[in-house]
Amino acid sequence: MSLTTVELCAGGGGQALGLQRAGFQHLALVEIDKHACKTLRRNVTKTHVENADIKTWKSKPELRGCDLLAAGLPCPPFSQAGKQLGAADDRNLFPAFVGHMRRLQPKAFMIENVEGFMSKKFVAFRQDITRQLEGLGYAVQMRVFDAADFGIAQRRRRVVIVGLRHVYAKRFKRPVPPNTRKTVGAALHDLMAANTWDGALKWARKANRSGPTIVGGSRKHGGADLGPRGTRRGWLELGVEGKSLADKAPPPGFKGNPRLTLDMVKRLQGFPDRYLFSGGKTSSYRRIANAFPPVIAEAVGREIAKALEKGQRRMQQIEWPANPPLRRVKEPA
């Protein structure tokens, strides 16, 4: 089967890359940030990328009935690092997503957001969104996944909301992570040693566990640092200075705690080294740090693909009568 997807708020392409690896073909990638659009065209697909706000984006008729509608909806309304305004935040795009669900009527959907979305504060919000999506004919479930369980050297917990039409829903299984943990030192040793820093091996031995969640900030707030004070403290315990990013790896004779480069942050998010981001350092860092790790998107995407394929095969196996018997209708006297 050739499975198709439309993705809203595609960002830097973490979800898009993961779904592509899971076997989905993108019919449209919609993103409001022009630099993110350039990134998507460079790495995912040169066509089908639309620079638009999903509040006003008009979907084309040929997109109706796609296999999957995916979205990385903005996190600030639910992030513990923000004010957690939820539905009152002007960046809440769940209503826009539901509107596109009505218009496109996909077989399945997938939404990624921060773990804070699952807090008690948003119980009523989750119930309302679930009711709306179930009312459109989907079985809905929400799960939290940690990127560290999928071999990423970063503790990054994200909620994934999945919905499938009932004919496919029973065939969907939650992906089981391989639970292969990787340390920051093992993930970044070669990049730290790229400029022949003689302290790279010693540093890697100290960075002997997964790193804290990288925080990229929003378009309104946040710069090129590794997050708030508590997060930076966690990075310092691993021998990383988190107040800013470096342009290059440490040189020979470097003393002290090294800073991460964009390439290092990119690897900690699970992007391949060849994946290139467009824009300046701060804007590129935000897109990298806010991305959905491709490994989680791929794992969930593969299970959605299996459910859709099994459901489709089952429907094809049903023997529909070629010439159903005609029912005689009694004419009124």
What's the structural blueprint in terms of helices and strands?
Elements: E1 3-8, H1 14-21, E2 24-31, H2 34-43, E3 49-51, E4 68-71, H3 94-104, E5 108-114, H4 123-135, E6 138-146, E7 157-165, H5 166-169, H6 184-192, H7 200-206, H8 229-237, H9 262-268, H10 281-289, H11 294-317
Parallel strand pairs: 1-2, 1-4, 2-3, 4-5
Antiparallel strand pairs: 5-7, 6-7
Please give a structural write-up.
The protein starts with a strand and ends in a 16-residue tail after the last helix. The mean pLDDT is 89. The radius of gyration is 22 Å and the shape is elongated. Helix 3 (94-104) links the parallel strand 4 (68-71) and strand 5 (108-114). The protein has a seven-stranded mixed beta sheet, with helices on both faces. It has eleven helices and seven strands. With 333 residues, it is an alpha/beta fold.
Extended strand count: 7
Q: How many individual helices?
A: 11
Query: What is the helix/strand order?
Result: EHEHEEHEHEEHHHHHHH
Percent helix, as a range, is 25-40%
Strand arrangement within the widest β-sheet reads 3-2-1-4-5-7-6
Characterize the main sheet.
Answer: 7 strands, mixed
State the low-pLDDT regions, or none: none
Rg (C-alpha, Å): 22 Å
Structural class: alpha/beta
Q: Which outline best applies? A: elongated
Distance between the termini: 53 Å
Strand content: 5-15%
